[in-house]
């Protein structure tokens, strides 16, 4: 990269003077990357309790620690990038768990994959923190909000930088906790608190899978450190054997929970009840991609289990298509993006499932930018709608302010948001030369090159659908006639400078991040496939196993044509879909939400999200509820309380009553009993 | 049968008889007097058994001190005059006598089964060389001196306790 | 005279037990207990003749304890009498269920 090269020049003499050898690099304050957000959490948390009104201090501390963490991450990223094929650096701080054979250190592993993730996480987090200053500025729980957000980044970095599965699990659970806290941030409204619980409970199912996978790993490999596991696994586990397949499938169950894949995706749309920056940060850019990171990190294990790879790729592909179809018929401005996120996560899993780990991580990075951008743009719209309706004295509930049918024509009122939203949408749709074009194209290409013809077709269809629904989203929100209502319309205004500034930064990111990995087929810059080379050390072992057993990927798609041709075709198709949908919907008259009817037929099926929530309610939730009631009434109250606890008590009491009959209180009785006892003993001795 | 055996039987008979009388007298004062008689008889048997010092102690402590204490209490509580007959009913008579007899039978069997006194009389030479008091005193203040001291403390505690309990206004 | 002494001792002890069972007056019951202690003392003395002087030493200790017991016991009886105006053990039934 050009930027990296520049810093390279500046830092190179110093590094050489320090006698740094090839393949080795010295990380720069790696622990501070994690400690800073935690510090922010402590300070903001304390402020939230002690001085909730010190908003200015919170505004400095909250994003400030993230800014510093981002700087450290950037420095480390550059340091590791300028060493060719750098070995991972393990920084062990103390022994965390030592029981029998098990030894887990509180250690950080700094390698290419971790740093790429850390860079994305800290960068997007920092921008969203800044955006939050504007978005949450008037909220009463301002300090609490930033405390949670800082804590989230802390756990996310633990997840990314931890050097062992248990430590990663700490981060994994921690981000789940923060997600729960932030979804239910406005916990006084029961729907939001319920959404938080739903997210937490559904994630729990996935976490169970993660735990089981760790147990199995320990049982078969005797270690849980990344390095230990990945070094011993190829020798200790049979290729395609039951053990490694089970381990990876359970790991993937964890991923489906955390990364909202079929069948555990249902929590993510409901998670949109949280503040919009939270949706952008946690439920689009970072936390939900943890599953992709896990699969990529455990690439060696997955590579050893072709069945699991197929499961991952298939689930990813199906989820991508499934969620994209739902997104077509949603009217909530955030829900469209939420289903889009599920769909894009499906893409990532499709990528790592076919062994294209770099493509998955690449899409993770680009997606973080343009999806955060789209969410924050929605946030700006919602913010504005909320203000307008409130000023006009009309109901300003979530269902009103977030409904696309109540918007329309906002481009005149919010030009900044409108333009950046277009950039994000085009990036998502995969239009050249924005970020999504490169990353999505590589995934589709990898699926085809690995011979997954069906998934390849699914991915292409999904790409077209993506272009379609995001255009619809844009048109409904920003184009056409305004449907907000005459009274409220004059209060609609552009978001504050801080928020628009964050949008612009993200828009730039959405535009350029794709250039770090320009495919060989399109030689636009001298350093093509830079990300591939950068991440090569992290995925070398896994890719080696895949090539050994499955052969090299093909150089043509299933129906012919090279990568260059297909990427041109893809972008052309995307543009075509955008144009068609735009023209079709531009003049369409939508009615405001309260005047319009529910869609019917196929549209209704999509509108109701295939009735999956209802199905889960019927198949899982209700029987489970009944089981719970049964356990409560019959097993707990009846058996445990009644028979066991109270039964023991009653038996003891009855026994006591029987024995107490002898306690007459009369001395004569006692004497008589004593004498009888003595006589019996004496008799036994004497006779 | 020499004279000492005759005397032994005499005092044994008196002891048991006055014991029976003691438990059957309605008036507690009478009971106490019969107890004194029993204790004297036992003291006499001690003499016959060559425990002269103990015989003296028996008279001084039991007959002298403890029984006087009993009588004091009986008089203090004025139980000697308008006493309530405290003997139990028929059922208890049966029980008391029956159990007493069974106990006696069992102890009798035990005594008979006990190994017959074997070896020579160890006490006689001791008494001859050290006298009645010396024979008891020497081991008491040499081997058992700690027990003696502890017993002294026990007596002190009992004395203080008795005073505290009896004086308390209830 | 060992056996005979033991029989006398057994008889006195049995009489004491019967007395405790027959009487309700706390003081008389106390006297019966003294009688039982004496019965035991008698067997100690009888055996000491063949087993050594320790038997007589034990009797001394028993007498001391009996004296202490009598002092405390009678004090308790006085205390009880003050409370109940009676020494009939039927009145003392705080230990009843």
Topology:
The complex is a heterotrimer of chains A (687), B (170) and C (97).
Chain A: H1 2-17, H2 30-50, H3 55-81, E1 89-99, E2 102-110, H4 112-135, H5 142-161, H6 165-183, H7 190-221, H8 226-236, H9 242-258, H10 267-270, H11 276-285, H12 290-297, H13 299-304, H14 306-328, H15 333-353, H16 357-391, H17 398-401, H18 415-429, H19 435-449, H20 453-478, H21 486-489, H22 497-512, H23 530-550, H24 563-586, H25 601-607, H26 612-660, H27 667-686
Chain B: H1 3-24, H2 28-48, H3 52-76, H4 90-113, H5 123-142, H6 145-167
Chain C: H1 2-22, H2 26-51, H3 54-84
Helix pairs in contact in C: 1-2, 2-3
CATH third-level topology of the largest domain in chain B: Four Helix Bundle (Hemerythrin (Met), subunit A)
| Residue share in helix of chain A | over 70%
Q: Give me the number of helical elements of chain B.
A: 6
How much strand of chain A?
under 5%
How does the major sheet of chain A shape up? 2 strands, antiparallel
Quaternary state of this entry equals: heterotrimer
Largest sheet of chain B: none
Distance between the termini of chain A: 106 Å
The ordered string of helix (H) and strand (E) elements of chain A is HHHEEHHHHHHHHHHHHHHHHHHHHHHHH
In total, how many beta strands of chain B?
Answer: 0
Instruction: Give the C-alpha Rg of chain A.
Output: 30 Å
In short:
The complex is a heterotrimer of chains A (about 675), B (about 170) and C (about 100). Chain B is mostly helical and about 170 residues long. Chain B contains six helices and no strands.
Feature tags:
heterotrimer, A: 687 residues, mainly alpha, 2 strands, disordered N terminus, B: 170 residues, Four Helix Bundle (Hemerythrin (Met), subunit A), 0% strand
Structure write-up:
The complex is a heterotrimer of chains A (687), B (170) and C (97). Chain A has 27 helices and two strands. Chain A has 687 residues and is mainly α. In chain A, strands 1-2 form a two-stranded antiparallel sheet. The longest helix of chain A is centred in the last third of the chain and has 49 residues, at 612-660. Chain A is globular, with a radius of gyration of 30 Å. Chain C has a single domain (2-84), classed as Helix Hairpins (Orthogonal Bundle), CATH 1.10.287.3510. In chain C, 80% of the residues lie in helices and 0% in strands. Chain C is elongated. Chains in contact: A-B, A-C, B-C. At the B-C interface, helix 1, helix 2, helix 3, helix 4 and helix 5 of B face helix 1, helix 2 and helix 3 of C.
């Amino acid at each position: 990269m050009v930027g990296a090269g520049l810093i390279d020049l500046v830092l190179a003499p110093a590094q050489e003077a320090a006698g740094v050898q090839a393949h080795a690099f010295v990380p720069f304050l790696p622990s501070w990357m994690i400690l800073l957000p935690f510090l922010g959490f402590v300070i903001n948390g304390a402020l939230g309790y002690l001085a909730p009104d010190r908003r200015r201090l919170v505004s400095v501390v909250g994003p400030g620690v993230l800014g510093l963490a981002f700087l450290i991450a950037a420095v480390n990223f550059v340091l590791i990038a300028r060493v060719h094929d750098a070995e991972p650096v393990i920084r062990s701080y103390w022994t965390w768990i030592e029981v029998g054979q098990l030894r887990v250190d509180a250690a950080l592993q700094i390698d290419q994959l971790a740093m790429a993730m850390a860079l994305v996480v800290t960068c997007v987090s920092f921008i969203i923190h800044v955006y939050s200053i504007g978005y949450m500025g008037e909220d009463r729980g301002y300090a609490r909000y930033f405390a949670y957000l800082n804590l989230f980044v802390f756990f996310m970095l633990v997840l990314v930088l931890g050097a062992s599965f248990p430590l990663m699990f700490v981060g994994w659970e921690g981000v789940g906790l923060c997600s729960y806290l932030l979804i239910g941030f406005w916990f006084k409204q029961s729907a939001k608190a319920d959404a938080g619980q739903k997210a937490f409970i559904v994630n729990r199912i996935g976490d169970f899978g993660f735990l089981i996978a760790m147990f199995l790993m320990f049982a078969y490999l005797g270690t849980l450190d990344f390095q230990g596991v990945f070094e011993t696994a190829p020798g200790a586990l049979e290729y395609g054997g039951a053990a490694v397949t089970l381990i990876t499938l359970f790991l993937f169950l964890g991923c489906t929970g955390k990364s909202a894949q079929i069948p555990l995706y249902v929590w993510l749309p409901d998670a949109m009840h949280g503040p919009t920056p939270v949706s952008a940060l946690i439920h689009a850019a970072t936390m939900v991609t943890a599953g992709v990171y896990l699969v990529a990190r455990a690439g060696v294990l997955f590579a050893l289990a072709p069945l699991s790879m197929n499961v991952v790729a298939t689930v990813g592909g199906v989820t991508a298509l499934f969620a994209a179809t739902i997104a077509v018929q949603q009217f909530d401005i955030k829900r469209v993006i939420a289903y889009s996120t599920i769909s894009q996560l499906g893409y990532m899993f499709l990528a790592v499932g076919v062994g294209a780990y770099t493509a998955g991580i690449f899409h993770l990075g680009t997606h973080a930018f343009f999806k955060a951008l789209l969410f924050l743009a929605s946030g700006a719209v919602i913010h504005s709608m909320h203000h307008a309706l409130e000023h006009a004295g009309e109901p300003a509930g979530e269902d009103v302010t977030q409904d696309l049918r109540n918007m329309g024509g906002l481009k005149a009122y919010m030009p900044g948001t409108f333009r950046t939203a277009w950039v994000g949408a085009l990036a998502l749709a995969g239009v050249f030369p924005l970020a999504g074009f490169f990353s999505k194209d590589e995934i589709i290409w990898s699926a085809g090159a690995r011979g997954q013809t069906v998934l390849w077709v699914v991915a292409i269809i999904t790409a077209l659908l993506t272009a379609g629904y995001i255009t619809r989203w844009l048109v409904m929100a920003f184009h056409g006639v305004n449907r907000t209502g005459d009274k409220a319309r004059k209060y609609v205004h552009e978001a504050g400078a801080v928020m628009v500034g964050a949008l612009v930064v993200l828009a730039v990111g959405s535009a350029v991040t794709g250039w770090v990995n320009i495919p060989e087929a399109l030689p636009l810059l001298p350093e093509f496939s830079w990300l591939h080379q950068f991440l090569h050390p992290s995925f070398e072992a896994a890719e080696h196993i895949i090539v050994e057993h499955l052969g090299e990927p093909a150089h043509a798609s299933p129906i012919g044509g090279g990568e260059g041709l297909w990427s041109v075709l893809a972008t052309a198709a995307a543009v075509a879909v955008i144009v068609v949908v735009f023209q079709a919907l531009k003049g369409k008259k939508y009615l405001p939400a309260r005047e319009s009817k529910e869609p019917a037929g196929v549209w209704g099926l999509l509108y109701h999200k295939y009735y999956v929530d209802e199905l889960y309610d019927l198949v899982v939730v209700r029987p489970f509820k009944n089981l719970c009631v049964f356990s409560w009434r019959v097993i707990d109250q009846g058996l445990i309380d009644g028979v066991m606890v109270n039964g023991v008590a009653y038996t003891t009491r009855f026994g006591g009553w029987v024995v107490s009959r002898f306690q007459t209180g009369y001395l004569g009785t006692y004497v008589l009993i004593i004498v009888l006892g003595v006589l019996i003993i004496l008799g036994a001795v004497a006779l | 049968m020499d004279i000492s055996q005759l005397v032994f039987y005499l005092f044994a008979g008196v002891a048991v008889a006055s014991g029976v009388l003691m438990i059957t007298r309605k008036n507690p004062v009478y009971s106490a007097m019969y107890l004194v008689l029993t204790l004297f008889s036992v003291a006499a048997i001690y003499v016959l058994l060559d425990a002269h010092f103990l015989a003296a102690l028996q008279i001084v402590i039991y007959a002298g001190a403890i029984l006087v204490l009993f009588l004091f209490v009986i008089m203090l509580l004025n139980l000697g005059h308008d006493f309530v007959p405290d003997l139990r009913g028929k059922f208890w008579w049966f029980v008391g006598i029956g159990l007493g007899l069974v106990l006696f039978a069992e102890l009798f069997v035990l005594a008979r089964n006990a190994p017959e006194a074997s070896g020579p009389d160890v006490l006689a030479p001791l008494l001859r060389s050290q006298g009645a008091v010396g024979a008891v005193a020497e081991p008491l203040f040499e081997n058992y001196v700690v027990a003696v001291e502890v017993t002294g403390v026990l007596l002190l505690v009992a004395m203080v306790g008795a005073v505290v309990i009896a004086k308390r206004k209830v | 005279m060992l056996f005979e002494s033991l029989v006398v001792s057994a008889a006195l002890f049995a009489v004491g037990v019967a007395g405790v069972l027959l009487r309700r007056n706390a003081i008389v019951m106390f006297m019966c207990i003294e009688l039982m202690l004496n019965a035991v003392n008698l067997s100690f003395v009888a055996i000491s003749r063949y087993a050594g002087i320790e038997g007589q030493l034990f009797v001394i200790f028993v007498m001391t304890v009996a004296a202490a017991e009598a002092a405390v016991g009678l004090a308790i009886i006085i205390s009880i009498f003050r409370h109940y105006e009676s020494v009939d053990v039927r009145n003392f039934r705080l230990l009843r269920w």
